[in-house]
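ugh finaly. both done.
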Amino acid sequence: MKITDEKIEQILAPHYSEDELPVYYCHGNMQPTFKDSLLLGVFSSFKTKFFILGFTSQSLVMVKLDLMSNPKETTVIPYREFRDVQISNLFLGLGKKLHIYLYDGKVIKLNLSKRAGGIKKQQENIENICTMFENKWGK
C-alpha cells in the first residue's frame, strides 16, 4: 500500500476520540537497539518498526505498519503520560529524533525523516510537531 496524506488521514481517523482535534501526522520509525545491532549485525535492519504517527490535541496515536505498509496494531498514549520529550536532529539534519519519556519508565525513540515518499506534508508536520512539544515541555 502506498502511503499518502489522504491514506494516513483515513487510517488515523478511527483512533481519534470525539473531544480530540487531529493536529499533525507523519511517518516515522523505531530503530533496533544497540544490543540487537551487535547480535544480528546487518540483519538487525529487519527489526526496524515503521509507524504512522498522529499527534492530536491530547494524545499520540501510533499505528504500526507491516512490511506491506498496512496497519497492523495501534497504540494511543495520552500526553498526560509523558514525563518529558527530547528533540534532536538526525544525521546531517535529515529529520528529527523524538525521545518520549513516559511516567511508567518506558522510553519511545522515534526517527522522523523530513522526506517520506507520497506524504506531501511530512516536513511541515515534523516542524510543527517539534514546535508543539517544545512549547509544551520547554525544550
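ok and the 2nd:
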Amino acid sequence: MDLVTAALVLTWVVLVLIALGLAGMMRQLRDVQAAVHGHPSGRSGARLAPPTVRPREGAQFALILLVDDNCSACAEVAPAFAASVRHLPAHIEPVMLGYDNSTRYAGMDARFVADSTAYHHLDPGWRPALVLISAEGAVLLAEPVGSADALRTVAEHVAGSRFAQAPSA
C-alpha cells in the first residue's frame, strides 16, 4: 500500500470515529435535556410532581411558587403571592416551595414546603417560578414571575381559567 492510500484510509477511519463520538455525545445531551425537563430517557409525556407538593385533601390543584433565599425577586414576589392566594378558589391550594428550610417564607398565608428533591424536579430554570400541578401530580403550567405584577398577571390567568372552575361532585 502506498503512502497516499494509507493516508486516505487513515483519514476515513478518523472521520468515522469522530462521527461515532459525536453521535454518542448527542445522545448524552438529549438524555441530560430530558432529565432536566422531567422526561426520562427522552420520552415525551407529563412529568409528575413529588407527593410533598401535591395538593392536600379537598384540593384539585396546587399553585406552587418556587422561591430561593438568594433571589431578590423572590423576596418581592413572595408577599404578593401570599396576598393573592386569598382570591384563589378553595380547590386550588397555594404552596411555596423552597430548596431548604428557610424561615424567610415560612410564616406567610401559603403552605411552605422545604424539599430539595421536589425543588429540583419542578425547577424550570428561573426563579421565582409559578407552577400549577394537578392532584395526580401532572405539571400543567410553569411560568416565570420576576415581579409582583407578573405574578398577579399569571395568578389572574389561573384564577380565570378552566382550573378555577369548581370540580363537579
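summary for the 2nd one i guess: Confidence is low (pLDDT under 50) at residues 39-45.
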